[in-house]
Amino acid sequence: MIYRVRHTTSYVYGRPVELAAHVLHLTPRDCPGQKLLWTSLECEPTPVRRQTGTDHFGNRIVWLFHETPHSRFDIVALSEVDVQFPEPPPVHMTASWEEIAVLAASDPDVSEFLFDGPMCAASPRVGAYVAQSFPPGRSVLEGLLDLNERVFREFRFSSGVTSLRTTPEEVLERREGVCQDFTHLILSGLRWLGLPARYTSGYIRTRPSPGQKRRLGADVSHAWVGVWLGPEYGWIGLDPTNGIVVRNEHVILGWGRDYSDISPVRGLILGGSGDTLRVGVDLVPVEEWEQDPSLRALGAFPAKIPVD
Amino acid sequence: MSGTIPIDEMVDGQGGVRPQWRHLLSILSELGHADLLGRRQQIALALSDQTGILSSPSPLSGLISADEKTPEGPVGVVCDPIPLILKNEEFAALEKGVIQRARLLESLLRDIYGERSVLRDHLLPPALVWGNQGFLRGGNPDGGEAAGHFISCYAVDLVREPDGCWRVLADRVDRGNGIGLAIENRRQMARAIPEIFSSQPLRRLGSFLDRWQDGIQRPGSGESTNPSVALLTPGPASPHWGEHVILARELGCSLVETADLTVREGQLWLKTVRGLRRIDVLFIRQGGGSIDPLELDSVGPGGVSGLLDAARSGSVRLINDPRSGFAEALGLAPFLPRLTGWFLGEDPLLETIETVWLGDPETESFRERLLGPAGEQDGGHADRWVITSALGSDRTVQRLSILDDAKKAQLAEKVRHAPWRYVAYREPLASLSPTVGESAIVPRPIVLRLFAIQEDDGWTVLPGGVARVFESGEPVTVEPIRVVQTTKDVWVTVDEHVTQRGSSLVAHRPLAIRRDQADLPSRAADDFFWLGRYLEQIESGARLLHVTLAHIAGPDPSPRERADLEVLMRQMQATGIIHRVSMPGYGMSNIARNLAGTGSPDGYFARTLRKIIRLGPELADRLTQDVRDYLIHRANAILESFVRHGRSGDPTKTLDHLFSGANDLLVYSATLSGFVAENMVRSGGRQFLDLGRRIERASSVLLDCASVLDQPDVHQRGRMEGALRLMLELGDSVITYRSRYFSVVQPAPVLDLLLLDEDNPRGVGFQLTALRDSLAALVSDSPSVPAAQQAASRELAAAAEAIRVTLADLVNMVISADNQDAAAASLPAAIREAQRAVMSLSEQIGRCYFSVLNSPRLVGIGNDATIDDSMVGS
């Protein structure tokens, strides 16, 4: 499936920002099951310095540096991505979770995702919750699918009740939150058990309700868990917010140990105050995009901020 | 390991003194113990002067507070007068080992941040890489990053164990403090105890330093042919501040804090009073993980945003690469021997002290024996095992021998859950070296720190170092140097067959010509400006007090004396020298009582002196030693005598003490002015110190004049004459006036002298002219100063001139008035207005040059809930 994704970020600052430096994770990366076809990233005002590269995890990043006072900051990232993540193997084909833990511990790359990130520490309480899905000897995929299903069923999606500072233990307590909360929860528990897991940042396709017109910019950034099934099957994505395995409705931006490794727009600004931020995402199959006049009218720039 | 008795560096175990110590020992015994103690104190004081760190914790007393462990001993940096002597051949062996170790760590870092073949080939467990706190996850720009060394400056702690073998206790890569101390110890030793240097020829440190400096100054990949260097310190609160001050001076570079730096257009700049100055090489003396908030794991806004981007592009060289901290993790130790073979194809020359990584499943039974209940484990030596982090920066140690069962069980649980986080090492029995104790020379355990630097053509080891002295029975640990620790100079002997000339004959590459590019950082300019203001506050306050005391006329003053005293007391109150006039009347005893609070520890002068003393360390690297000495020590002495004599029941005594105190303060201020005029180059710090003084003096003369003219009946001839005389006294211009006008006192000439005359250094006209010219000159002579800064500077000069013109109008109005007395009496409001304009000028100078910017904010990682909640939605 080929998607076009347009991600707009607009800051309006109460007072002018004098100096700003940003690291952007807004360009989808290549990985098994996903290929970036083309991409563009534009911003206003024009930065004094712009540098592209990859971060430690191999995700695409863009550095932007601004040095003249400005009261607005708009970024539009537009990409086309071909995604078709393979179907996971039958559950009985994957090794037991204990074997996977041993394999992961000695794998030169996978082992990194056994360790805590700055925002999300492995927790015994969350570990105990997650462990219920992993009785001794159970195939790792069986356990993971069970866990994904449990979180989907037992936790309520509720925005506004948590923030990025909410810990996995608090989420476990409240039984509600948003996608990054469920993701952090599962990361924390799996790592406690010695299973590797990575925070995956990206987008999920949404469809307008039947009879409704598509609202521009109504999609959002999304997050889910990357889990490892051993050297043979590699990584797959589990989306606990929707209780599904990632196949062809998701687009990956990149991954890290937790949110802080892969924050879409991380910056350091001098000045400003009373800032407001608007984010808009459109993730639509290319053919559909080309047939929708309002999407076609969007173009790359300037950022058209969706009206709520 | 053989034996459990530590080696003695001086005696050979058979009762004999090792040959390299013999001569030194005989010189020491000739000196005698009391003399040695004196020398130690002398060195300690010299060291604290060098670093600006006060040798006494309280500015109110030169004595050491009572709760110090050794009340007679020096506090702060202490250098034992007896050096540690290393024989030439012994050092040569260590040198090879240190270089090999440094090469190994450099190769390891290159691999870890590159291919990570150590993981693919299972030479290092993943936990020690991914969990390593020094492993920094920075970005990689397309097109690759500028090539450079990871480690340019390496320090290593070594202990000699009972088998006679030196082993590595810890590698210091992230910061590697101590080279400055090694150099300064040697210098102070040579001054304080020159006799012992005749005992034998030893390797000198100078050529190492030259070579280092030369290497740092070597042009980088940038176009700059004369690189400018800065040393980044966490600031005077850092325990290593003294080291940073010394090192910055030795390397001839600016000492800066993160707030002084900014990255623009991918280059690093120092914020100076002349605008931004490019920095080509940055010595980093703060933790690598907090160096760039834009990347890395840091969650706070500390550090310099964009610094890593600048470094990767090659526009600035970082020493060391902040990522080098990886190599400090103690968990690496057990794997280094194999890595030496893998990377270098060599056998390791230096061992590490016995260290076990507890994450290795094969060490489980060992771990259980260690952490189990106390008993007979391990042949009785289990109590020397220590547990600490395997992963880096946190070097807190848990000595198993001193843990009670409950604490041990707690630790065991933590370790069992994540054994990979921990190492156990066997506490070494460090060798003993003779040290000056309180009553005799005593053997004390020592840890030797050696230093190596890397240039393009290889590594060089400092032929010397720092030895840290531990208390008898105190364990030597891997923890960093403590704030207060005795150190030793380290001597490397010269082989008798090779003369000292031999070493100086080593051919050096020609040194690059260096030019001091010491542009004053804005922060330092701010400090100098305030130093100037405080000094002038002291002076004008002391003069006011002095004049007041001179006016005290006995028990029953005349109406005229009374009027003068009233003005003076009012002015003292306005200045804050006295709080309130508690006893009405102007008899001597009442005045004495009203003035008694002046000398109190929280009085005006004490507070101002303390502010001056507090600036001392901040400015330590920019003042000559004479100025620093006087600035701090003399201020301390005056404070002390103030406090001692301040309150006395006898009014005559009180007044006497205040009189001599006021004199001391006037001399203090005048002496410093002299020192500054003779010792400091005109530009830079001194210019701002002058600006501060000019501002403050203009303000205080204006206030004095306004205050004196602001009294009832002043328009009457008799009263006006008294007021004008008082004005001249306060303005220290009596003699100048008399030489021009003899004894006739009239308003116009007095006001002209005090407010307008550009030649009277005590008058306002002089101050404003000087301010105007100084502000105009501040930036005009440099083509690289940004236009905005130049314009702002010209504006400030114009503001100073405007105040001067206003005053000229006032004085001219008095000159041309029919009744000068009446005209002068109408001036106070206008003069106060001018004083406010001077204060506003001061604020504008602050805004223009000291640019106190708001601190930056980190967005996008959850610090700002309202923003971030909308970042991720579903």
UniProtKB/TrEMBL annotation, chain A:
Which SMART domains does the protein's record reference? TGc
InterPro entries, per the entry: Bac_transglu_N, Papain-like_cys_pep_sf, Transglutaminase-like
Family annotation (Pfam families)? Bact_transglu_N (PF08379), Transglut_core (PF01841)
Transglutaminase-like domain span: 171-242
Give start-end ranges for the coiled-coil region(s).
none
PANTHER family named in the record:
BLR2979 PROTEIN, BLR5614 PROTEIN-RELATED
Protein name, please? Transglutaminase family protein
UniProt organism field: Acetobacter conturbans
What is the organism lineage in this UniProt record? Answer: Bacteria, Pseudomonadati, Pseudomonadota, Alphaproteobacteria, Acetobacterales
TrEMBL record, chain B:
Q: Where are the transmembrane segments?
A: none
DUF403 domain residues are: 520-850
Q: Pfam families annotated for this entry? A: Alpha-E, CP_ATPgrasp_2
> Gene3D superfamilies of this UniProt entry?
3.40.50.11290
Endpoints of the signal sequence: none
Domain Circularly permuted ATP-grasp type: start-end pairs:
83-469
- Kindly give the PANTHER family that the UniProt entry links to this protein: BLR2978 PROTEIN, BLR5612 PROTEIN
What is this protein identified as?
DUF403 domain-containing protein
Species this protein is from: Acetobacter conturbans
